[in-house]
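Worked example 3. Consider a protein that binds adenosine monophosphate.
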Amino acid sequence: MNNAPGKSAGGRVILFLGPPGVGKGTVATRIAAGDGFDYVSSGDLLRENVRAKNAIGREASGYMEAGQLVPDELVTRMALERLDRTGGQIILDGFPRTLAQARALHEYLAARGRELLVIDLEAPDEFLRERLANRIICRGCGRIYHRLNLPPRRADICDDCDGALYQREDDRPEVIMERLAVYHRQSSPVRDYFLARGAVHTIDGTGPLEKSLAAARAIIAAGGNP
Ligand code: AMP
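Given these inputs, the predicted complex is written out as structure tokens:
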């Protein structure tokens, strides 16, 4: 990962925003793997804590199963502690999701002189419902597939690590509806918050993965300058 000497202080933080199912995780992990950036997903961090059955996991699991947001204080502490451990360039996925989290992150970065770049993937709800209902994920390495558009070579087995593929509990249709409603209510203001600070670059998330990837890479390479 990106902990090379000389890059250890004040590395840039790249945020991926956008509704559940828009492809944030897929685009962000591919860029991180290809370009050697560190990558953090707040959802992955929370699921690790749930699996470990520790205090954070026990507090978070009920909210997660219901498709609701975990309390700001808990997620913010967890995400900022993780950022503290990475001084180099890092991609953040899934955090911040509320205005309070956005403010906390903004203050944290400003205090450390770390630059922020925000990439916002957009797609209509109907498109997202279909995509999430068909999403399957590798238990071993976290690679994301779509049953119809991005299927594994062998049914229910990961192409990369032979891990078993599964559907997330919260990718069931009734939970998907709740997650999209929560996004519109609580997370759209995050985009507006960063828009007002001039750091947001929007990408159409309905096209093929390669197109979103190329667009995100171009924005990152340009250093966020249009
Ligand atoms: P994700 O994997 O990003 O879709 O997140 C899965 C679930 O974890 C969400 O539905 C929330 O319950 C919780 N979660 C992840 N990130 C956050 C966050 N920044 N704030 C609050 N809850 C979160």
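Take a moment to read the result before moving on. Residues 4 and 88 are 8 Å apart (CA to CA). The two ends are 27 Å apart (CA to CA).
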